[in-house]
Design goal:
CATH topology: SH3 type barrels
Strand content: 35-45%
Order of helices and strands: EEHEEEHE
Number of helices: 2
Number of strands: 6
Radius of gyration: 12 Å
CATH superfamily: Ferrous iron transport protein A (FeoA)
Distance between the termini: 11 Å
CATH class: Mainly Beta
Largest sheet: 6 strands, antiparallel
Number of domains: 1
Helix content: 10-25%
Shape: globular
């Protein structure tokens, strides 16, 4: 049986779930800001916590915890394995 990759926004990961950044949907400002935080395609990422609805999300990348808003988290596409 083959593993199939699924792309979902970072905002939809479950706390504790891991994945890999596949793409960032946004303009140069959003991409530049996330790049400065270390969020770029190919990076491993893990969701630590998030508010139930539309609050900030905390995730871990390169052993550093970062909080971002829900709107930005929706623009970060994560590859998960099913």
């Amino acid at each position: 049986m083959e593993n199939q990759d699924e792309l979902i926004p970072l905002s939809e990961l479950i706390s504790g779930q891991k994945g890999e950044v596949e793409n960032i949907l946004g303009g140069t400002g959003v991409i530049g800001r996330l790049n400065a935080l270390g969020v770029r395609p190919g990076k491993k990422i893990k969701k630590i916590s998030g508010a139930f609805s539309r609050g900030p999300l905390v995730f871990e990348i390169d052993k550093t915890q970062i909080a971002i808003g829900h709107g930005i988290a929706q623009k970060i596409l994560i590859k998960t394995q099913k």
